[in-house]
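Troubleshooting: if your tokenizer reports a length mismatch, compare your output against this known-good record of 228 residues.
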Amino acid sequence: MATILVVDDELGIRALLSDILADEGHTVELAENAAEARACRDRSRPDLVLLDIWMPDVDGVTLLKEWAASGALTMPVIMMSGHGTIDTAVEAVKFGAMAFLEKPITLQKLLRAVEQGLTKPAARPSAVVTPLRPGDREALALEPAHPVVGAAGLPLALGPQAEQSFELDRPLREARDAFEKAYFEFHLARENGSMTRVAEKTGLERTHLYRKLKQLGVDLSRGKKGVA
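Known-good structure output:
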């Protein structure tokens, strides 16, 4: 079993995730803010980190960037948020997160993400980061190597492909459409083109889903072996 670090400022969330993961046989370390997370990461060297985005001292994405810049991102990191957006998910993956879980987190999604995280190596950030200066954790100088976000391993949209890329130097609507298209293409491929199962997985009514796919220009025949 693995050592998993849970970082969340809400006591109830920490307790719930700790109980679930402990029941699965994992050793659980808990942190309620970035300072405790740094200490726990250095002390216990966890096999995986569940990291909340919105925290009072330093937000999760900033902490992720810090670990990436200092070479401390040696473990898979799964981001969590109740107010996450596609843009936030893409940014987190850019700096090394391997998955993004939206709160409230269901038991099934949590265990599946943890299982996947423990079987994959930590993602390498797809940005060039300058080393941290002593005592300068907050002012990270992050310089993208190119305008493409490598998003391998993100359950929201990426699936089994080795890599998906999204151009950031474009209007937000276009970037969002590109992300959503990749998201639906992944689910269509995984469900062998079954609109019924894709609708269930994505939480959309089937008619709405069909209109959305047509709007995005998704090829409905890709990966189709028979539609339910």
